Structures are given as structure tokens and as C-alpha cells.
Amino acid sequence: AKEFGIDAALKALGIKKINAGTSTGSENFGSGEIIESRSPVDGELIAKVKSTSKEDYERVMSAATDAFVDWRKKPAPQRGEIVRQFGEKLRELKEPLGKLVSYEMGKSYQEGLGEVQEMIDICDFAVGLSRQLHGLTMHSERPGHRMYEQYHPLGPVGIISAFNFPVAVWAWNTALAWVCGDVCVWKPSEKTPLCGIACQNIAAVIFKANNLPEGISCLINGDYKVGEMMTGDSRIPLVSATGSIRMGKIVAQAVAARLGKSLLELGGNNAIIVTPDADIKMTVIGAVFGAVGTAGQRCTSTRRLIVHDSIYDKVKNAVVDAYKQLRIGNPLDENNHVGPLIDTDAVVMYQEALQKVVDEGGKVIVDGGVMEGEGYESGCYVKPAIAEAEPDFNIVQHETFAPVLYLLKYSGDVENAIEIHNGVVQGLSSAIMTNNLREAERFLSVAGSDCGIANVNIGTSGAEIGGAFGGEKETGGGRESGSDAWKIYMRRQTNTINYTTELPLAQGISFEL
Ligand code: UN1
Fold this sequence. Notes:
The chain is 37% helix and 20% strand. By secondary structure, it is of the alpha/beta class. Strands 15-16-17-14-13-19-20 form a 7-stranded mixed sheet, sandwiched between helices. Strands 10-9-8-11-12 form a 5-stranded parallel sheet, with helices on both faces. The model has no long low-confidence stretch (mean pLDDT 98). The site of 2-aminohexanedioic acid (UN1) has 11 residues, from loops.
């Protein structure tokens, strides 16, 4: 790690050997258990974090609820100005933060930088949005009446994020929530707590420089028990949670039990349909980046390749050849394509998936396995694998957060591919590779892909922030980042104003006294 400048990056981001994991801005504390952050890159202990106790959490919530009272009154474009400054700071610290993401989480340095770029992009988007946040005006049925709607800030927003995008997902939520007039309380994954502390440190500098109160940006750290403090807390009107379907179901039920709102970004089981009219070269790049990027740990990772039988062998050979070029190793070394999985538990899940596909009758055509020897001491490096399988295999129906790609065959019409495509419980991202307009439009039509994201001649991962991000079915239905995703961070109010001296009732009701 030394030769890649990790120590300098940690210093630039204010990471110490032992860090307080709870923060209301510039006030940092933490009296809970110690979390150790170990890098999957080399297995070394990066630093320790004091997690959030119940008392710490109460202190956070009291700062957050106090801060909200003032922050919501600040004009939205002025809130946007704070987000603009935050985005500028991220530009300055893009390299160290990208490096920390790579070192703590294991994705390639390029992808770490890409993740910070997503944070910068959402800040830019939010700054423009801060001058909009508009509702509609309607025509009243009553004379001399005006009717319109407006969006008001909601309150403290709880954010629970996953290890795989340890900084960007927070930024998608928080940049929008801040311009919307909300304050945020963030629990990053206990597998990537230092990324959370680094981001909070950056935000704290901006809030302090602008003389803003403690509590607009808050950080808590710990495992699911700390998350439960938020899901059960009616002071938090919205909980935005990213993670597994299993976690999402627990969060959704806890939040719904108190009639709060939740925004869920859960698992994907993303597929690319490859039709006889596909450009094979583009298909290979899209499929391979989709399957092995972030070592298959994106919620948008390509897990299934649904290929027409007439070109099946051609596509299979091209993808298998491409896998031979992949270099697995230290993600900070830009010569490598594939870094480690997050931890050894993930390695076990990967191995089990490969065993299961064989048990169910599948055929592994690119061998998997755990890398051993020099440079692989952490035990987290695995070989990206490909298996030929059937769509209804139990393992193919599940999301395995690892670089395992399933090759599935279809015959006849594109409808047959769409049926296989939609035959899973998840509904996040999807793609078709074709130069045939009819096939492309059928895939995008009402009878086409049932996912929240559907692409033509692009892979399943790497969405831009300008569009609404999220998926259907057990992916949870939430939408984050672009388009009108901001609306969930605000409460809508319908206003009707009578500027006459009469009081006519709606629906023509007469009520004489
Ligand atoms: C995630 O994996 O949780 O579309 C988010 C993508 C990225 C975001 C992925 N922009 O792959």
C-alpha cells in the first residue's frame, strides 16, 4: 500500500489510527464498540473506528433535529451554494478519496475515481436543482380561487449504504437532501467505515467555513443494530437504504410499521440479451466490464448473458477469449483489471455459487478459484468465472455478489429472450445488444424489460447520475439521483387560496346558514 501513496491519502482525508465514528459535523465522538477496517487489498489493518452507542445516537438526533429547524428556512439556492462548495472540495480531493475507496473496498483505482466523479456530478446536478424544486399550478373550479402545490423540506433523512459504493451512494442521497432542505444521518457499511469518516470530514470543513450549525451532516457507525436505531425512529421521516433484498425487507417493514417512507435500492440480477443482430465487439466489452468490474460487486453487475442460439458459440468464444486477458491483482496498480472481493466471507459465497451451478447441472467454462501466492495474501482475490446454465437454476435466480457470469441460450424470437430475462425476482438493470430497431423497441416496450433501467447497446452497469437510478420488483422500487428523484426528499403540499368575498364550496355543494 505504501508505494501507492495510501498514507498520504489517509492524511489528506483526516483519517487517524483510531477514529471517532460518530459525528454531527465538526464534533466527533463515539463510545460504542471498536470496528477494525482491514483492506481486502493486502489484508492490513488500515485504522480503527469507535462505533455509535445509543447515547451517541441520541446526541446526533438532537443535533440533527435542531439543525433542521434553521436549515429548512435557508433559501434553496443558498443551500445549493453549500453543495457547490462541497463539490469543489471533492474535485480537490478526488485522488486521495478515490484511492481510499480502492484500498478500503477493493475496486480498481480507476473505478474509485469514477465513484468520486459520480459524487461531483450529483453535486453539480443538485446545485442546478436548488433553483427549481418546482410544483405545479392548477386551475380551480371555483371563481376567484388559485390552486398550486409546493414542496417543503421533509426532516432528517436516514441513509444506510453498502460497501460496494461506499461514497457515491451517500452523495446521491445527501446532495439532493441538502438542497431540498433536509439534514442527513448516514450509516455507512461497517465494512467501509473509513470512507464514511473521510466524506464526513470533507463535509465538515464546508459546513464550518460557512458557519452552519452542527447536525446538517451526521455520521453514525456500526452494524445492523445501529441501523435499527434509525429504522425505528419516527423523527426520521425517510430512510434510504441500499443493500441486499434480505436487508431491504427488514428495513421496509420496520419503517412501514411507523408509517415512515423508505427508498430502497436492493439486489439486481442483471442480464444482457444478445440477439443475432448484435455487434459482437461491443457485446464483449459491455459484458466483460459488466461482469468483472468492481469484481462483480455492483448492484448493476452483469450476471446473465442471454444469447441467441445462432450466434451462441461465437459470443461464447469471444467472451472466453476476453477473460484470458484479465489481470487479477492489487487494484491500486492500474495494470490490473480485477481487484479482490470485500472479504473472505464473500469468497466463500463465490465458491458456494460455483459449486451450486455444477450441482444443478451447469458447466463451468472459465474456471474460478481463489488466487494464491505473492500479492494475494489477503485471501480475497478470486478468478472471474463463467458457467453455462439454465435460466431456472436456483443459483441463477439469486444474486451472488461476485464475478460469476451465467451464459444462457435462447432460440426463436426476441420475446423468448425477454421472457427469460424477466423471469427473476429482481428488476434493476437490463440491456439488449442489437442493431435491429424492432428488437430494440420491443425490449423497451411495455411488454419488454421489466427493470428500472433498460439500455440498448450499452451494458448493465455504469449508469449516469442524470437519470433516475433504481429498480422494480424485489429491487425495491426506489429511485435515486437524477430526473425527479428529489421529490421523495420533500413533502408536497396542495394550497388553495380564495381571493374573493364569497365562500363557494367545491363540487357545487350548497350550504346555506
Ligand atoms: C451500486 O452498485 O450500488 O450504474 C450502484 C452503476 C453505478 C452505480 C452502481 N453508477 O453501475
